[in-house]
Amino acid sequence: MYQNRTTGHEMRRTAPIGLWFMTIAAALLAALAVPQQASAETGKTVDVGETGYDTKRLVMASACPHACPWGELGEFVQEAMADEGYEIILCRNCNRAEGPRIVAKAAHPPELVDGDFEHGTTERVDAPIDFGVTEANMFRWAYEGQYIYAKDGPYPNLRLIARIEDPTYLLVAAKAELGIESLAEIRERKLPVRILADFQPSTMPVLDYYGLDKESLAGWGGELTSPRDVTAETPFDIIISSLASPANNPESDYWTILASTHDLTFLDLPEELLDAMADDQLGMQRVTARWGVLRGVDRAIETVGRSGEVIMARADMPDEIAYALARAIDRNRGELKWFVRPYSLDPQTVWDGKGVPLHPGAQSYYREMEYMD
């Protein structure tokens, strides 16, 4: 899912949200462009036999089996489509920024890399990809050829099958022992704090607003780093992340780990910053993090959040398969709540690609169900 992290980027305070985002996205693409290859002794490529639209054996771009959101949703679709008479074969390493590319090109999966093994993926399927799952904003960027897909996109043959809700919040928390009430105190007092930040495009404007960058923090004896492989003993003072939730998927579990083992003070962000970040380009909207969403959240916190994973396909997918996918996902939507992340399907948004066309087969189903006009 959101495994697109990088470090060492600072933004000018006067830059517009779009420029912030373009610069961060370029850094994310560079970070993903040269993965460390895994050894042949630790993984293998599997011949899965004949697949494709004519076989009822489809290969889906998914992700890891250890609670990765795209992996979970792949398993959900796999089980749901069995009722429709289809066998869904999951590509467990068609993740990160690669999913939309691989689907659009009907490409074979990439080679396995060390990051795959860390989350339980040890096999690569040897077959072209028929459809997949990705994050809603990445789906749109790929279709439009924007940000991390600017150099290789657009991919106008991508089509939406279903949007699945999956909310996370932008939250800022500090160890209570610091005694600070605002991030502004860090620069004002040149505090030597260790900040964990996820470096998502929706997080970087917060760092920029307060003038917090790697060089400045290092000059004060502090540090700005990504929350990777976090344990209760991980040294930190502050967390800034737009992936906050009480779920235990790899991208968000550091929130539950650190909130449950440390006393945290959750900080408010100024209205002008939140208004600027509630931007369609960022895929963020104004929301409220309710009391108790995490240990230490002792009040309703006004912030921004995002929600949306998508099941995606190509325009060449036959209408009857797209219809079957939409129907299977809808009929089995009650199962979504039983995964590590409590997903949901909203009939009012399941068909909304935010500018990416809905596949005609899926559209036929949603109109039949009167979810859309």
Secondary structure layout:
Elements: H1 17-33, E1 44-46, E2 57-61, H2 69-82, E3 87-91, H3 98-105, H4 114-118, E4 123-125, E5 131-135, H5 136-144, E6 158-164, E7 168-175, H6 184-189, E8 194-197, H7 204-209, H8 214-219, E9 223-225, E10 238-244, H9 253-261, E11 264-266, H10 271-277, E12 285-289, E13 301-306, E14 309-314, H11 319-331, H12 360-368
Parallel strand pairs: 1-4, 2-3, 2-5, 8-9, 8-10
Antiparallel strand pairs: 5-14, 6-14, 7-10, 7-11, 7-13, 12-13
Helix amount: 25-40%
Taking the alpha carbons of the first and last residues, their distance comes to 31 Å
Radius of gyration: 21 Å
**Could you say which overall geometry the principal axes of the C-alpha atoms support?**
globular
What features would you describe in this structure?
By secondary structure, the chain is α/β, with parallel strands linked by helices. The protein has two domains: 193 residues, 3-Layer(aba) Sandwich (D-Maltodextrin-Binding Protein, domain 2); 140 residues, Periplasmic binding protein-like II (D-Maltodextrin-Binding Protein, domain 2). Helix content is 29%, strand content 19%. The protein has twelve helices and 14 strands. The strands form three sheets. Strands 7, 8, 9, 10, 11, 12 and 13 form a seven-stranded mixed β-sheet that branches. Strands 3-2-5-14-6 form a five-stranded mixed β-sheet, with helices on both faces. Helix 2 packs across helix 11.
